[in-house]
Structures
1.
Amino acid sequence: MTETKKAKGGNQIIRLALILFLVSAITSGVLGLVNMLTKDRIAEQERIKTEQAYNAVLPYDGGYTEVAFDQEAWPTVDSISAAGEEGWVVELTFSGAQGSITAAFGISSDYTITGASVIDHAETSGLGAKITEQDFTDSFIGQSEGMAVTKDGGTIDTITAATISSRAMANAANTAIAAVKALG
Amino acid sequence: MNLKQQFKEGLITNNPVLVQRIGMCSTMAITTTLFNGIGMGLSVLIILTCCNVAISALRKVIPNDIRLAIFVVVIAGFVTIVDLLLQAYIPALSASLGVFIPLIVVNCIIIGRAEAFCQHEPIGPSFFDGIFQGFGYTVVLVCMCLIRELLGSGTFGTGIFEIVNGALNVTLDGSAAGIRIFPEEFGATILIMPFGGFLTLAALLAAMQYALRKSDEKKARLAREAKVEIPAPAEATAKEDAE
Amino acid sequence: MNVITIALGAILMNNFIFSQFLGCCPFLGCSTKVDTAVGMGIAVTFVMGLASAICYVVNVLLVQLGLDYMSTLAFILVIAVLVQFVEMFLKKSVPSLYTALGIYLPLITTNCAVLGVVLLNVQNNYDFIESVTYGITGGLGFMLAIVLFASVRERLQFADYPESYEGFPIALTSAGLLALAFMGFSGMSIT
């Protein structure tokens, strides 16, 4: 009696597992299809975003060439690209108030900032997210190493109620210049 | 159940946030600009409607023992599809909502509706349930956004509306600066911060409870009056008799 | 050093409830008594730590297979199975805790703090140690929040507030005030 019950229970479990497996398989199939259709577009969007950021911080027509740097010494720096003789674009990922921020800084050949642009961030919209606004990023232009936000006695605008995000950006700008200087 | 009834339930009497009190995480977290609120609301509406239809269609096949697991798989599937589509076509919204888009998977509204409604009802009503419940959720999000944005930073419709050279400009890429109602310095920035999320939702819930209580009281009073009216003539005649 | 920064951040500066709004449903639902709040906190911490560890491995696998678009689906399945497993384990080995937690255990599956921590681990590119640290300390932050809130809530019945605020609204308002207090931690940094 108990044996047949057990066998029945075993069958039941197999049946349930099969149904669950089937549903999961169909879902995965559909997801794979959607992924195939959107993959290129997502990659394209990412590329456009990065390209726009690069062009915004240091306009250069000749094409940016990535240069090698000491990744051990500059853990927050993702890449440094040279824009001919004009200068460099440094891309960094660092922590902001809520999550990581990815930003690009343009640096001229005399080591001043030519522009800043945020590529990706997870800051609160309406507060820390204001680091993407031009009013804020423009305050970096023409600055050189040793930048600090106004709240710390520096010259970079502090966004109201988003000191941490603003400070993170200022620190990143300093890191960017230092990393470029270290290239020699 | 007719459509009008379902509409009223989704929007007021059984509103997912204000009455069922589910899905509150995203309600408080992302309602800082109108762009976020509408984007999130519509995403949930679409996912909820799709899930409702799918689960209702499968309701006779899904074994009761593992229904939750199947619901979760179906929901996660639709959420990922919407997530990928947003990344591809409205990247600004995807960046702005961040982790809260995949988190729709565990938004209790969707699994709650599946459990409470779709596993018993045919496809038609489930479809409209998804639309109306999603709409009710969107309306609450939009209210939260309008209040927090206006009082917090003094703007209206950040990310969607802006005035350029005196003309109203509507954008869908989230870059619009919003219409300034009063200078930013006068805004209570605290309302944009987490505290403001809790406070605004509390105020909305309290307003809803007030409204529901008033309407209940009114109904009770009407019912009482209706009841009183019937014995009244008998009493009157009794009095007349006595006189 | 990084681990300490992550830990303090998850507990105080970026508390899951008060700053990121992750896990609000159980936070509001299971906080009427301090005892249940402690139990819930322990269970969530445990599941968050384990989920972070397992999902880290799952994510590495998915990325290598080029299937990272499936991550949300995979993570939620891992969490669901994990919660089921924890439930069976507790039922057999620690029945007292199992009965104390009761219906809250299966609810952890739909706790957005658990899925949230896993997704944030991926988003922030944490390595294994950092992921587990973030998971466990995020859970501890959740526990701190829910226990504090439960003790406030137990005293709410003696408070005098407008009738319309009865129940959820007054609870939310007090949670907001706690969030305000936690805001004092933001801006703290360890260098």
2.
Amino acid sequence: MLQRIYDWIDDRIDITPIWRDIADHEVPEHVNPGHHFSAFVYCFGGLTFFTVVIQILSGMFLTMYYVPDIVNAHASVEYLQSEVAFGMIVRGMHHWGASVVIVMMFLHTLRVFFTGSYKKPREINWVVGVLIFFVILGLGFTGYLLPWDMKAYFATQVGLEIAISVPVIGDLLGELLAGGEIIGAQTLTRFFAIHVFFLPGALLGLIAVHFIMIRRQGISGPL
Amino acid sequence: MSEKNHNVSRRQFLTYTLMGVGGFMGSAMIMPMVRFAVDPILRAEAASDMYELTEVENLTDEPQSFPLSFEQDDGWVTQQVEETVWAYLDGEDVVALSPVCTHLGCTVSFGGDESNPDQFFCPCHFGRFEQDGTNVPGTPPTEPLHRYEHEVRDGIVYVGRPQSQQ
């Protein structure tokens, strides 16, 4: 049945080459853990992407209950975590997943560094990877404020003071990030917008570039 | 051990196990999120509380409007809600009607139309209802005004939520 549905569609719009092109790619022996177990270090990039997908999915679901408003933000988080079925699990996925992304990304960076995979011709992809690193850090920073509890508030205060300590433009930068002179209603909505729309958009674009370049250049050779 | 004697080939076996494990892991990821999302529709509807409206002796044969104010739970928010209830005595029985027009939700009032002083009248599209809430044929509403669940205890009228009469 499924085969017939697939054939019906494929007959008309020829989708096989599209997924073939994505699915068929060379996996050299030296990156295949089935051949050399130590090659598992090559999995960290994929694991980073996998956790990012979990973050996007669980985040989408969290916004069904969350409100970025100083009066209700904390109450809505408490409600979705303690009252809604599986709330603790879905929020837990997002909360712990945030740390897992950072850890996996760090391990991926170490692998690329120690296998020398950043060398010519892959320098540009290293630069894109570093940009992804900053975007992920930004997601972590902006997401941290959203529960609007004491920890969130003071972590943001510290983060903003770091931004303010930047020479010359610091004060302006801090005010731009906070949306005013205090950490308040406008900071919360601003961080929410950055966390949910701006940075994920940038992240998806950069990841696409990252992956396209891997396909173009292939996986780097063995040590 | 020849490949031919196996009913399940190595490739099939791998496909089944990988699909099985993958499906299990995928559903472990998706299932909590889906259940989380549909939670509001699976939540058992809380039995509606009854709120004090007025004393029975304030009621007459003629519908009068009484304010009803109660706390409504809405997720993480509890808010004070104000409603109006039109109540009268039908012999011994208390009748409590909702002033929400069953046409498009405007607010009706008793005797609001000078030419029909003993009917509920909706100013939006000239819908009319008899005193007992029955919609007048030929006017826009298609069902009677909703009636509040109610009970009388110690001479005080308590009302719950309005119910459709159909």
3.
Amino acid sequence: MEIKTDDYRVWTEGSDIFFDGAMRLASSEAGAPITALATSVLASNPASITLNLKDLHFLNSSGINLLAKFTIEVRKHPDVRLVVRGTPDIPWQSKSLPNLKKLHPALVLLMN
Amino acid sequence: MTALFGTPDIAIGMKGSVSRVRLFDGPLDLSWRHCATTSDFIADLFALRFQSSRNDYMEVRHSIGYLVNELIENAVKFRAPGEIVVEASMDSECFKLKVSNDVLGEIASEFQSLLADITVGDPKDLLIQRIEANAANPDVGSSGLGLLTLMSDYGARLAWIFSPADENDRICLETYASIPISQTHN
């Protein structure tokens, strides 16, 4: 499954969801296809889901809210492990990704 | 009547040399794309002096770009037809920004009641509470999350001044922001 625009790309490999580029969503509606993609991965009831953000250079607050909402969705499934892979080299990730762990303390945040 | 929300001392004007970008409504047909191009331009311009350190450059460029993008996005989203003026300046300690645009009276009232909620308390706690409330009830809307992210994750200090505009039922909105700029690497 893949969502591709001029600015960003989101795709799945098994239960890993990859994000690439610069995502500036105009509203939560604009993020609906991405939410649908992530929700379909959750619906397949995997043992774990990984959000790989290491190549996502920019994400505006609508996009951060989308990740936060999905984190809360996964929190409702205690049997599903949520892993978020980021990098300290991209400032928005070191600033804002720790908020996801506040929402879902069992989330595994890997920043390396 | 003029109303002020947020940190009063940053809303007293821009000192020193100010760079100004004016986004005209008609010829540009202002759209979402202008938020990214304008904020990237301003971030590039102000981060130049940090080029000697890659880490400082990346950090400063990103923080300025993020702040400017969020505030121009809000202006594009909520403005009444008309121009958006973006003014920026930087000293050794902080980057300052002022975004001016008109909004309709009804939008101004809604925005003021939102600001009354998100400017009192610890922004880190308010951000998490608002994300939870928004996830539990999508009708709440995601308004305010961008501003809270700026205050919580970027240490931004924000202020808003609402004053009567020339035209009826329009309010002139000035949004002021200041973020700390620290040079960590030599």
